[in-house]
Amino acid sequence: MAFKAPMPSTPKHGLHKPFRIATAGFHIESVSFLPTPSTWDDFEQVALRGSRIVEELRGTNTVMGGFIEVCEQDGVELAPLVYTALGAVGPATDEAVRRYADEMAAGVRALSGLDGVLLFLHGACWTASYPDPERFIIDTVRAALGQDKPLIVALDYHGNIDADTLKNATAAFAYRKSPHTDTGDTGRRAATCMLRTLRGQITPAWAIAKPGVLVPSIFSATALRPLADIIEEGQQIERDSERYTDISLMAGFSYADAHNAGFSVLCVTDGDSDRAQRVADHLSDRIWNERHALYRPFDVYTAESAVSRACAGLTTRKAAGRPYVLVEHADRMNDSTYLLAELLKRRVPRAAVPFLWDSAAAQKASEAGVGAIVKLELGGHSSEKAGPTLDVTARVLWAGPKSYRVTGSYMHGMPVDLGMTALLDIDGMSVSVVSAFAFAVDGDAFGVFGLRPEDFDIIVLRSKTHFRAFYEPLAEDILIVDTPDHGVADLRLLPYERLDTHRVFPLAPESVP
Question: What is the structure's pLDDT at 511?
């Protein structure tokens, strides 16, 4: 299916009347199998409205930062409505999706002389009642905007979408890289398309193709082959095109039980929906043909075998200052304890576990104060699959509220508020506990405490792909660890209900795309 956007009426903008564009965002990557949903109150804890969106996100490597940059450079009158993002957690409540969609729509209706809307959504939100929450938000905003003005959407590379998701969008663009170091560029692509559309320079037409392939997030890094080769072919098609062409290859998110989960290829062209469909279909066919290699490009370890290999490797590594990185990728809430328990059992020194999510432990350690010896029940709180809650005795090295701005390439400049935070020493191991979910994907997780990752022999991370931008050059080796948490590498173990498992690889290995 392809959609050709209606051309807006030619705007009567002179030198003194810039385009007026509204912008809004709602971002959550939902592991639908997790038991606790994120409520409207949870989203409100991080929500920004009006001018605060511009003040906080201007100059950041984020989609909203990209929107802002292009619009300000062009003299656009930007009307920021609401922006909230919780990242990769569990489901959202129906109420949260409905209230933010209604707020966006009300904001659009209240703006006179509006020329278009730039919208940032993840693509993998999941709720109990909305089969496609992003479609609901787009449709709600479109109803408020009307059919004759462009509504352009930016999406996450891990979004689950289909043609119905975008049926009321003029065009859509997704990140091209994982680690997501091009989030700002994605915003710029979308905003540039908006301006060219409003000027009558292009008439966006888009098409989407679904190959029927799922991969675990840990295998969705865009530098991995053969995925990198398919992406490169798409970029070559763009370079060879005489007319406007933009291709987004999306890996989807396999841990949201959605009917449209899995890979998508989205192609936007200037007025040529047939060509957009041909390009999308071609790249989709390539994904299907490479499905086996895409699904498992390298092996994974158990917690025990990973710790054993890292400990053995320390005696033969090339040089000090090159840690072994153990990635507990199946942990979706940053509180799994499988690797932590294994390291404590073996009393491994000079190991670090940054940004473990445990607000109760952080609060108790902070109340005890720096230098105190405190007994804690640590981790394993989010679900029965997060591993055992560990009884530990820790020395408090630092405690208090902690916030910072990201210095790494992923989400550079983004403000992060960890809430009450504590740095603990547990049998010589460094463990930081935080009250707000946060990614430890770069050196900030150490630098905020005056530490360096190079000072540790073993580092436990809970990322999927984003850690690679910082840690691949630094690490002696990276070991991907599979645990029985909600983000397992074997997707056949997940209890899908909404997804048609008879038509999607690897759940039906020889299904027809």
Answer: 56
pLDDT of residue 8 exceeding 60, the answer is no
Whether 508 maps to a domain, the answer reads: no
* Residues 115 and 197 sit within 8 Å (Cβ to Cβ): no
What are the tokens at 208? 């989407």
Furthest-apart CA pair in the chain: how many Å?
Answer: 72
Give strand ranges (E) for 284-363.
324-328, 351-357
CATH number of the domain to which 193 belongs? 3.40.50.10350
- Which of 295, 321, 344 is the last residue in one of the domains? 295
3-state secondary structure of 168: coil
Is beta strand 151-155 parallel, antiparallel or unpaired with respect to 116-121? parallel
* Average pLDDT of span 367-383: 91
Which residues, at least 6 apart from 3, have a Cβ–Cβ distance to it below 8 Å? 163, 166, 167, 169, 205, 206, 207, 273
Same domain, residue pair 276 and 363: no
Residue type, 199: R
Give yes or no for a contact between 489 and 254, defined as CB atoms under 8 angstroms apart: no
Do 291 and 307 belong together in one domain?
no
Residue at a domain's end among 264, 295, 326: 295
| Of 366, 372, 379, nearest in space to 394 by CA | 372
Same-domain pairing of 202 and 323? no
- Of the candidates 1, 101, 2, 3, the residue with the CA atom closest to the CA atom of residue 43: 101
Query: What is the Cα–Cα distance from 28 to 42, expressed in whole angstroms?
Result: 11
Tokens, residue 304: 């025990």
235: domain range?
A: 14-295
Report yes or no on 498 lying in a domain.
no
Residues 279 and 312 in one domain: no
- Give whole-number Cα distances, 296 to 447, 453, 469, in Å: 34, 29, 21
Of 146, 87, 154, the closest CA to residue 111 belongs to: 146
Burial class, 26, CB count within 10 angstroms (exposed 0-12 / middle 13-18 / buried 19+): buried
What are the distances in angstroms from CA 7 to CA 11, 269, 303, 444? 11, 14, 56, 46
Of the candidates 60, 69, 86, 59, the one whose C-alpha atom is nearest the C-alpha of residue 156 is: 86
Is 7 inside a domain boundary?
Answer: no
How many distinct structural domains can be found in the chain?
A: 2
**Cis bond before residue 226 (omega within 30° of 0):** yes
Q: Compute the distance between CA of residue 305 and CA of residue 2 in angstroms, rounded to an integer.
A: 49
Q: What is the Cα–Cα distance from 70 to 116, expressed in whole angstroms?
A: 14
For 414-465, the pLDDT digits (tens) are 788 889 999 999 999 999 999 987 778 788 889 999 999 999 999 999 877 7
Q: What pTM, to 2 d.p., does this model score? A: 0.82
CA atoms 357, 360, 364, 369: torsion sign: positive
Torsion 314-318-321-322 (CA) sign: negative
Q: Does any domain span residue 2?
A: no
Looking at the chain, how many residues does it have? Answer: 513
